[in-house]
UniProtKB/TrEMBL annotation:
InterPro entries: DNA_heli_DnaB-like_N_sf, DNA_helicase_DnaB, DNA_helicase_DnaB-like_C, DNA_helicase_DnaB-like_N, DNA_helicase_N/primase_C, P-loop_NTPase. This is Replicative DNA helicase. It comes from the Bacteria. The main replicative DNA helicase, it participates in initiation and elongation during chromosome replication. Travels ahead of the DNA replisome, separating dsDNA into templates for DNA synthesis. A processive ATP-dependent 5'-3' DNA helicase it has DNA-dependent ATPase activity. Coiled coil: none annotated. Belongs to the helicase family. DnaB subfamily. Gene3D superfamilies: DNAb Helicase, Chain A (1.10.860.10), P-loop containing nucleotide triphosphate hydrolases (3.40.50.300). It comes from Muricoccus nepalensis. GO terms for molecular function: 5'-3' DNA helicase activity; ATP binding; ATP hydrolysis activity; DNA binding. Pfam families: DnaB (PF00772), DnaB_C (PF03796). Keywords: ATP-binding, DNA replication, DNA-binding, Helicase, Hydrolase, Isomerase, Nucleotide-binding, Primosome. GO terms for biological process: DNA replication, synthesis of primer. It catalyses: ATP + H2O = ADP + phosphate + H(+). PANTHER family: REPLICATIVE DNA HELICASE (PTHR30153:SF2), REPLICATIVE DNA HELICASE DNAB (PTHR30153).
Length: 496
């Protein structure tokens, strides 16, 4: 084992001197070659620091609109002594003999960049090994894992040379495909269906790369609504796959990161909702044989759904990203749900100055994950107590905790609100009235208000970057924490 480690430490770091020389030769011969590498290559990516200095000098002159060739750079390096190790300024002429054509410059640049990434991975691996052997005793094993995940996350983010400008005709093609999908889908839904008819109508489904914030005060039903949407999306994934091929293995699914509830608590909630047996009765074991038989039947159906639950408490943004990428690679991924973002932690090793900055890092990270994986991300959020001080308790954008960053990064901000919850607390008390008549009038009014609000909830779309805002009325059964469509021309119970 010791010999193996010794052999590993004697290996040379990944580099390609020939590629570096060839690229520099091409740049000196024809400055247009710089355009092929300027977007992703920097001087620190060169293994040979002298080559890095030469590249930086070329970069500085080309970006200033000046000529960078053997003659102009010779004057720059003549008296600095920077090239003495390789024979002085004459080395620039030698590079010309190693040059490649301008067409190959991009390929050589990518080879150099790839070697740089490999060297960074070697360094990162060395740090991980040294920490594991106790180089930093203040970091326990879990903290070391998080630091390693964050370092990989940073390297992947900074090391990515993908992206860039695309022609407008390609963008138009994508837009037309989206419109065609909406046109051919019942209800005009171009995104991933939520399982709630009116939500799909208002949002057009859940769209790739979008960050959706679902906020509300405690007991409003945020988790229940998010689970309902995740459930509906998972059903849509199966339905779409089977329409194409009934025998196909379903690829894709919904990842739920439950930071507040454990996986079995979340599963109990879904089981309660689908079987229409109170979650409280399930926990107390107060169920009849027919209820248990229903559980078995419902759980058999649920087990086929592509739902994946991670109940890691206080998960970091880098750990969440790593797990989502892994799931995308192995099973496929269509939707990410985070419950809830104030319980997340920023990247390991970072120490934001204040809570607002911390939340800003988290929301920016979630938006970056949505864009990178091209899936919608729904993040639940708590609201500040200032809602309780108002007569009308319906939330507003300003009620978002640390609202600036959340509101700015989100594509959609939704609030879930139940009037019934607040009305229950306003039940008239006889002691507060002068006589029985006034008490009776107040009680009658309260009962009428309660009847109107019973089993109803509102989903307030306060911000939507790509569509209208407004309020969606939903059906809600508190006993089963169950949301559904509300058809106001029929009895709600028929449409739950």
């Amino acid at each position: 084992m010791g010999q193996g480690m010794l052999g590993l430490s004697q290996r040379l770091p990944p580099s390609n001197t020939e590629a570096e020389q060839a690229l520099l030769g091409a740049l000196l011969a024809n400055n247009k070659a710089y355009e092929r590498v300027s977007e992703f290559l920097a001087d620190e990516h060169f293994a040979d620091p002298i080559h890095g200095r030469i590249f930086k000098a070329i970069q500085r002159r080309v970006e200033a609109g000046q000529l960078a060739d053997v003659v102009t750079l010779r004057a720059e390096f003549e008296h600095s002594g920077l090239l003495d190790e390789v024979g002085g300024p004459a080395y620039l002429t030698q590079l010309l003999t190693a040059m490649v054509g301008i067409i190959n410059a991009g390929e050589y640049g990518r080879v150099i960049h790839d070697c740089f990434l490999r060297r960074q991975l070697v360094d990162l691996g060395e740090v991980v090994v040294n920490r594991a052997f106790g180089a930093e005793p203040e970091l326990d094993g879990k903290a070391q894992l998080e630091a390693a995940e964050q370092a990989l996350f940073d390297l992947a983010t900074e090391g990515s040379s993908e992206g860039g400008l695309i022609s407008f005709d390609r963008a138009l093609t994508a837009a037309v495909e989206l419109a065609e999908r909406a046109f051919s889908t019942p209800g005009g839904v171009s995104g991933l269906p939520t399982g709630l008819r009116d939500v799909d109508t208002k949002l057009g489904g859940l769209h790739p790369s979008d960050l959706l914030i679902l906020a509300g005060r405690p007991a409003m039903g945020k988790t229940a609504l998010a689970v309902k949407i995740g459930f509906g999306a998972a059903q849509a994934v199966i339905r779409e796959a089977q329409e194409k091929d009934p025998n196909a293995v379903v690829r894709g699914g919904v990842a739920i990161f439950s930071l507040e509830m454990s996986a079995d608590q979340l599963a109990t909630r879904i089981l309660s909702e689908q079987s229409r047996v109170s979650g409280d009765r399930i926990r107390r074991g107060d169920i009849a044989q027919r209820d248990f038989d229903k559980f078995v039947e419902v759980s058999r159906e649920l087990s086929t759904l592509p739902l994946f639950i991670d109940d890691t408490p206080a998960i970091t943004i880098s750990a969440l990203r790593t797990r989502c990428r892994r799931l995308m690679r192995t099973k496929g991924l269509n939707l990410i749900i985070v419950d809830y973002l104030q319980l997340m932690r920023p990247a390991a090793g970072t120490r934001p100055e204040n809570r607002v900055q911390e939340i800003s890092q988290i929301t920016q990270g979630l938006k970056a994950i949505a864009k990178e994986l091209s899936v919608p991300v729904i993040a639940l959020s708590q609201l500040s107590r200032q809602v309780e001080q108002r007569e009308d308790k319906r939330p507003q954008l300003a009620d978002l905790r640390e609202s600036g960053s959340i509101e700015q990064d989100a594509d959609v901000v939704m609030f879930v609100y139940r009037d019934e919850y607040y009305l229950q607390q306003k039940m008239p008390k006889e002691l507060a009235f002068d006589n029985a008549e006034k008490f009776s009038e107040a009680t009658d009014k309260w009962q009428k208000d309660m009847e109107q609000a019973h089993n109803k909830a509102e989903l307030i779309i306060a911000k939507q970057r790509h569509g209208p805002t407004g309020t969606i009325r939903l059906f809600f059964e508190g006993e089963f924490t169950r949301f559904g469509d509300l058809d106001q021309t029929h009895d709600e119970n028929d449409y739950a």
